[in-house]
Each structure stands twice: as C-alpha cells, then as structure tokens.
Amino acid sequence: MTRRPAVLLALIAGLVVSGTVGYRLLEGWSWLDCLFMTAMTLTTVGYGAPGELHTDGKVFSVVLMLVGIGLMLYLLTLLAETMLRTVTDPGAARRRKERKIMSLKGHTIVCG
Is the pLDDT of residue 12 over 80? Predict the structure, then answer.
C-alpha cells in the first residue's frame, strides 16, 4: 500500500518531463514555455498556448491531457482513500497503540 503513492508520483513526474520534452521537440519552444504548457495542460488551467500549436502538438496535448488527468484523478482518489481509511479504521488505531506499547522499554506496569 505504501509503494503505490510513490509509483504514482514517479509516473506524474515522468509525465511532466516527457510532456516538457515532447513540446520542445514538436513545437521548438523554450524549456520554460514547454514546462508551462505541460503544467497548464495537466492541471487543466487553460491559459492558452505560449505559441501556435501545430497539428502534432495538438495531438500530443490531447494524449497528455487524457493520460495526465487520469493519473491525477487516480492519485487524488488514492490519497483520499488513505486518509479516510486512517480516520475510520478502528484496527489502525489499535495497531498504532500496540506499536507504541511494543516500543516502550524500561517501564513498569502497575495494576491495582
């Protein structure tokens, strides 16, 4: 369960890098413009392209949108699920308490 978010974050970082490089190769914009266009596309802000998009750039943008939005929604769903499970799972609270008790050393328990 703890590996999934790291893999998703790595996929999103890879998507940002590949989007930036893709725009650089297809459109020839500056690196900053390419990064800006990638971030804008993935976050669905929609300010508009820093320059005119050619046909290949438009197709690339559509693919980037579909893959990126899918990954972002999945990541948000995973984060929400993890938070809700932590809050609502009584077993998780018990396991946390047991781990805390097991880590105690040099204590005396007095029962009366």
Answer: yes
